[in-house]
Design brief:
Layout: H1 11-30, E1 44-52, E2 55-63, H2 68-90
Antiparallel strand pairs: 1-2
């Protein structure tokens, strides 16, 4: 991508970005909610770039071990976070 490209964001798009920011850093903490993507039980712990002859071929990713119960609890937390976020933004 060249540095001289111009991107135009619609008012709706800019509002959505602003509401997401307000939700994550202001409203969700007031409600006692945390961003579930920052607390995944099976989240990435390390990644290394894979190069072949100096060319990027992808990533080698290592994740945490998690039980089905931990994943299930995380999914419930994630779904509730998204439900409340979407409801708050809609209002």
């Amino acid at each position: 991508m060249a540095h001289n490209e111009i991107f135009i964001i619609s008012i709706k798009g800019a509002s959505r970005m602003d509401f997401n920011f307000q939700w994550e850093y202001e409203e969700a903490p007031k409600r006692g909610l945390r961003n579930p993507w920052n607390h995944r039980p099976d989240g990435i712990i390390d990644r290394k770039e894979v190069l072949v002859e100096g060319r990027h071929m992808g990533w080698e990713v290592h994740t945490k071990e998690a039980t089905e119960e931990e994943i299930s609890a995380w999914k419930a937390e994630r779904d509730e976070y998204m439900r409340q976020r979407d409801e708050w933004i809609a209002l």
